[in-house]
Amino acid sequence: MRSFKIIYLIASAILTLSFLGCKKVIDVDLKNAETQLVISGEVNNQPGPYHVNISRSVNFSSDNTFPPVSDAFVTIAVNGFTDTLTETSPGDYTTHLFTGIPDLTYRLHVETQGKVYTATSKMPQPVYIDSITFVEGINGVLYPVANFQDPPGIANYYKFKEFANGIAFPGGRGNSVFDDRFSDGRYINLTLYDDDSTDVKPGVKLTVQMNCVDEKVYNYFYGLSQVTSPGSPTPANPPGNITGGALGYFSANTKTSRTVEIP
Question: pLDDT, tens digit, for every residue of 220-262?
Fold first, then answer.
């Protein structure tokens, strides 16, 4: 039986995600079809430009070379304005003219090889980390704790990313997801467990970035954490928000961060 790899060009940013909160089970559909289009893109509340990557999935037995898709027509529309992206390198399409604003809905449109793919994502309001503390695990291993106030009465979905001295943890480590389904409006002390804590050590300047994402994007990353976790027997395709049959996701999200030197 053939399975196709979806650990594609977003692997550098989001390969190994760990789920930290209670979450309902999401059925993950195994894909045993021909290679599929893979789209990954983001708009956020930081100054652009923003990027949309387009490639092709590969057979699971193949190496990690994901063929880029060139000459696509890509736009992002918001509030009556449409930006036509430029292909700045093979398969990488870049915006020009805008900065993301919370509470607005962004629409991705991709045309390639006679097919159309779309996605919609509404940017949530940002939530800010108050402080970063640490807890000590087995054998003196340190784990960062993100402390923040969850806004009451709103469903919030979070994705975290960690950096050591300004460099993202390698291999996608330091990426975590969390939702407030059982902690709405509470003050959160969220321990960020990583599969390898070698980057969390005294003297390192650790940055924790907190992204507020919408529910569909959260479900995508949560599903990815299931199929890339240790012991997962078969790679699978998490539920993305791209219509038209492509794999991947398009996210309009806010980014906030806090940096602390580990004592």
Answer: 988 887 765 443 333 457 788 999 999 999 999 999 999 999 8
Report yes or no: 228 and 55 within 8 Å, Cβ to Cβ: no
Q: Which residues pair with 10 in a beta bridge?
A: none
For residue range 134-148, list pLDDT tens digits in order: 998 877 788 899 999
With H, G, I as helix, E, B as strand and everything else as coil, classify residue 68: strand
d(CA 185, CA 181): 10
Q: What angle do CA 96, 209, 121 make, to 5 degrees?
A: 50
Secondary structure E strands in 173-242: 175-179, 187-191, 205-213
Are the C-beta atoms of residues 259 and 207 closer than 8 Å to each other? yes
**Prediction pTM value:** 0.81
With tokens 């709103």, the residue in question is 154
3-state DSSP assignment of residue 263: coil
Query: DSSP letters of 80-116?
Result: TEEEE-EEEETTEEE--S----TT-EEEEEEEETTEE
DSSP 22-45: -------B---SS--EEEEEEEES
- Residue by residue, DSSP assigns 99-164 as ---TT-EEEEEEEETTEEEEEEEEPPPP--EEEEEEEE-GGG-EEEEEEEEPPTTS--EEEEEEEE
Phi and psi dihedrals of 7, rounded to 5? -85, 80
User: Who contacts 77 (Cβ-Cβ below 8 Å, separation ≥6)?
Assistant: 83, 106, 107, 109
CA dihedral 168, 237, 56, 71 (to 10 degrees): -80
